Model the fold of this input.
Amino acid sequence: MKATRAVIALSLSLALAPRARAQDPVAPVDGVVLDNHTGTGAPGLTAYLIHPVLGRSAPTLTDAGGHFAWSAIPMRAEPYYLEIYWGANLIYRQQLLVPGPVRLPPLRL
Amino acid sequence: MTVLPIVQLLTAACGIIVVAGGIYLLAKGAITLAATAPADALTIEWRKHIRVNTQVPGIAFFVIGLCFVIAALYSASPRPAEAIDLEGEVAGVDGPVTVIIRSNPLNLPVFGDGAIRSHFYPDFSVLTLEASAPGYEPMPVPVEISHGTLINVGTIQLRRKIQEIAAKPGSIQPISFQPPSVTDTTQSFGAAR
Done:
C-alpha cells in the first residue's frame, strides 16, 4: 500500500513539475548595444541571459541597430546575468533583475 | 476552409451516398447480390495487368463507394513535411557567421477581454534567411519554398559596420555558478525576437 502511494506521489510530482516552471509569469527584456568608438549600433553580436536555476536562454542576435530582445523571460527573484558575445568571445556580463518588463539602458561596449 | 478540405468532404460524402444508394437499391430489389449467369458477369480490366471478374455486379456499388471513402481518407491523412535542401554562400566575412531562418510574423487581432481567439493557416511558403556576423550588418534574404525542394540563395555579401569589440576590464562580472555551455540547448528558456 505504501509502495503504491509512493508511486502515485512520484508520478504526480513528475507530472506537475514542468507545469510549476511554466507557471512563472514572463516579461519581455530588450536592450541595445552601441559601439563605443562610433556610437552606432553593434550588429551581429549574440546575447544570452543566464540564470542559476533556469540555465541559459535562447540566443538572440543584435540587429543592424544593435537591438536585441526576448519576448518571454520568466520573472524570478534570483538575478539573471546578461552576456554579450563577439562570435565565441565573451565581451560583457552584468547582473540583471527581471521583476517585470525590462528595457535596458544603451550598453556602450 | 480552403478548396482541398471541401473536395475531401465531397469525396467522402459521394462514397457514403454510393454505398447508401447501393443498400437502398438492394432493399428495393433493383439490384441483387445473387450470382448472375457467366455471360452477365461484370469485368474490369486495366492495361491487361489487372482483371477483375465478378458474377455479382451489385457489389460494384459498394466497391466504388469504398474507393471514394478511402481516397478521401488518404488525401486527408497528415503527411510528414518535405525536406528542403538549401545552398548558398556568405562571402567576405572575417569571423563566425550565423545563419537563421525565420517565418513571417503572423499578426493576430487585438483582444478586448484578454482571450486569444484565432483561426489561421500557417504559411511557410516564404521564409527569411538572415546571415549575420559580429560587426557586420545582417542581410535578410527572402526564400520561396513553393517552387521546389532545392533552393539556392546564391552569394550573400555582408557589409562590415564596426571593428571588433574586445572585453574591457571590469566588463565581465564574475558568477558563482557554472552556466550551461552556449552549445547546450537542453535547458534553454525565453523566446528571442
Summary: The CA atoms of residues 129 and 141 of chain B lie 5 Å apart. Chain B has two domains: 3-76, 80-104+123-162. The first helix of chain B runs from residue 3 to 28.
